[in-house]
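Cross-posting from the chemistry board since nobody answered there.

I work mostly on the small-molecule side, so proteins are not my area. We synthesized S-adenosylmethionine and want a rough idea of how it might sit in this target. Sequence and SMILES are below. Is it possible to get a predicted 3D structure of the two together?
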Amino acid sequence: MSGDGGEPHDWPAYYEKTGARPPRETLLFALDRFDTEPATGPRLAVDLGCGSGRDTIELVRRGWRVLAIDAEASAIGKLTARDDLPSGADLTGQVARFEEAFWPTCDLVNSSFALPLMAPDDFTTVWSRITASLKPGGRIACQLFGSRDSWTGRSGMTFHDREAVDGLLEGFNVEMLREEEDDSTTVRGEAKHWHIFHIVARKV
Ligand SMILES: C[S@@+](CC[C@H](N)C(=O)[O-])C[C@H]1O[C@@H](n2cnc3c(N)ncnc32)[C@H](O)[C@@H]1O
């Protein structure tokens, strides 16, 4: 899992290598939880940092309405051109940075390996907007980078220790909080120590 977490360079090459990979475990876990709960109609997910859509495609396959947001036009272009998009998929793509994007009240904010790619001030603002946008009973599914990650200290990125993660998740029932530390490689083949929090949490 850790080795395809991505790095803030050369996104088109990243999309090429990872776009067809299966959806993230955090998304699947959240969707399975929703499936045990009654719904009055199609649910709405916002996929922040959707890339070329490995998670978005699973959402639309499972009948979700999806607003997929990414700063890279090539990500949205690749997503909307996927030949495995079901016909009639209720999908809107938006090219925008999270810091500038607006999204409506929703059932799920999914953000796989993307939120740490913001500077701390921006992260704080966007996290508040995520929590405010979730309906009661809605979920966040995401990864955050831990303080022992070998990218710690890079500018334009945010890292959290366990205490800080617990603070972010106040007001949520935490359904998955898996801390992973692993020495492996990035998609570009560079050696890296990964420290990742895999999170699914339900807004109270
Ligand atoms: C590592 S990729 C992850 C893609 C996909 N979610 C996945 O799990 O494979 C991170 C994605 O987030 C997008 N991204 C990073 N920072 C962003 C920001 N501040 N606003 C919008 N998109 C951003 C990048 O363009 C990239 O597509």
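Reply from a structural biologist on the board:
Welcome over. Reading the output above for you: Residues 6, 11, 18, 24, 49-51, 54-55, 70-72, 75, 97-99, 112-114, 117-118 surround S-adenosylmethionine (CB under 6 Å). The radius of gyration is 16 Å. Happy to explain the token format if needed.
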